[in-house]
Amino acid sequence: GSTIGILGGGQLGRMLATSAAQLGYRCHIYAPEPDSIAAEVSHAFTQAEWSDTVSMAAFARACDVVTYEFENVPVTPLLTLGTVPLLPHPRALETAQDRLTEKQFVQGLGGTPAPFAPVDTLAELDAAIAAIGLPGILKTRREGYDGKGQWRIQSAADVEALDLSAQPLIYEGFVDFLAEFSVILCRGADGQVRYYDSARNVHENGILALSTIPAGEPIASQVAPARELAAAVAEALDYVGVLTLEFFATEHGPVFNEMAPRVHNSGHWTIEGAVTSQFENHIRAICGLPLGEPGLAASIAEMRNLIGDEAAGWADILADPANHLHLYGKGEPSPGRKMGHVTRLVL
Ligand code: ATP
Ligand code: MG
Ligand code: MG
């Protein structure tokens, strides 16, 4: 096919559309916001309601293949796209949309998540804390990102202050990790799997701040079992495209945090730092093309997110010729919002 549909209009969609253009494809973007930033580089279908089955089907008819850059897309309308392939398959989306099903699924494949329990009421929270212990993190099961919808629980006093609304939650034991890393793989339509080097990820206030490659120890020696798990996930979902699993490196080996059925912020370094970027390989995979070499193209790559007003310092960033600056064109910065990123390569 020659036209790719992308569900979601954020920076990931924009980067996918840019790679698609390089390979000669056109993109249509389906996004709830009329001024989605991905729309700047491709044709947009603005839709006030994500879950509008009729408009999503009309969108799909204008495309040869549909993919997504955002996991909080309603699954039901996606099941009625008719003959247009949706890749990765909606089952991946369905599994990853809910932290509970995601953890159960990965556990079923032999992965080790932090101890967890679903929580819908204060009584269930008390029971979860009694079983799992303190400290812990209470998270919304759905729709959280960048640490939004999470409450750290240190003591009983933190529980008293909580106002549990109607949404389903999950309580997780706090993982005393040594470091964080991600496995990003791309699985082709023929089932071939390619792995990117795992980055050492540093989060600040629940938001990714920094990804560094090579990751060094203790990550380097935990990548193999983590990759094995990621491959099992991809296989079980008959996955096509880029898949990300986030891990905590602990004294006892890798602990699974969460998965993203899409290209990932911790893989932005691959745009300049890998032989073939995660975005290009995702497009290649969903279009049935052979995958490109994912290997590191420098000796060190470091990606730093520009959050809130950090993007205002772009002129200083550009003054260093080793830096590659990306600004997402989001307009006014707000605290905690990802406005851009910078990748620094050491050749
Ligand atoms: P993303 O933007 O990656 O989707 P998210 O909102 O889904 O983020 P998580 O990945 O669940 O959030 O958590 C964000 C960060 O908070 C983690 O990368 C980690 O630093 C910290 N964190 C989350 N859960 C735990 C835990 N159980 N133990 C220790 N730290 C945790
Ligand atoms: Mg997440
Ligand atoms: Mg995360």
From TrEMBL:
Occurrences of domain ATP-grasp (ranges): 103-287
Alphabetized UniProt keyword annotations: ATP-binding, Ligase, Nucleotide-binding, Purine biosynthesis
Pathway in which this enzyme or protein is active: Purine metabolism; IMP biosynthesis via de novo pathway; 5-amino-1-(5-phospho-D-ribosyl)imidazole-4-carboxylate from 5-amino-1-(5-phospho-D-ribosyl)imidazole (N5-CAIR route): step 1/2
Keyword set includes Secreted: no
UniProt cross-references to SUPFAM superfamilies, sorted A to Z: Glutathione synthetase ATP-binding domain-like, PreATP-grasp domain, Rudiment single hybrid motif
Pfam families on file: ATP-grasp, PurK_C, RS_preATP-grasp-like
Gene Ontology molecular function: 5-(carboxyamino)imidazole ribonucleotide synthase activity; ATP binding; metal ion binding; phosphoribosylaminoimidazole carboxylase activity
Gene3D superfamilies from the UniProt entry: 3.40.50.20, ATP-grasp fold, A domain (3.30.1490.20), ATP-grasp fold, B domain (3.30.470.20)
GO annotation terms (biological process): 'de novo' IMP biosynthetic process
Record-listed ATP binding positions: 99, 139, 144-150, 172-175, 180, 203, 257-258
Catalytic activity: 5-amino-1-(5-phospho-beta-D-ribosyl)imidazole + hydrogencarbonate + ATP = 5-carboxyamino-1-(5-phospho-D-ribosyl)imidazole + ADP + phosphate + 2 H(+)
Gene Ontology cellular-component annotations: cytosol
Domain of life of the source: Bacteria
EC number: 6.3.4.18
NCBIfam families xrefs: PRK06019.1-2, PRK06019.1-5, purK
Family: Belongs to the PurK/PurT family.
Known function: Catalyzes the ATP-dependent conversion of 5-aminoimidazole ribonucleotide (AIR) and HCO(3)- to N5-carboxyaminoimidazole ribonucleotide (N5-CAIR).
PANTHER family assigned: PHOSPHORIBOSYLAMINOIMIDAZOLE CARBOXYLASE, PURINE BIOSYNTHESIS PROTEIN 6/7, PUR6/7
Subunit relationships: Homodimer.
HAMAP family for this protein: PurK (MF_01928)
Protein name stated in the entry: N5-carboxyaminoimidazole ribonucleotide synthase
Lineage of producing organism: Bacteria, Pseudomonadati, Pseudomonadota, Alphaproteobacteria, Sphingomonadales
Gene: purK
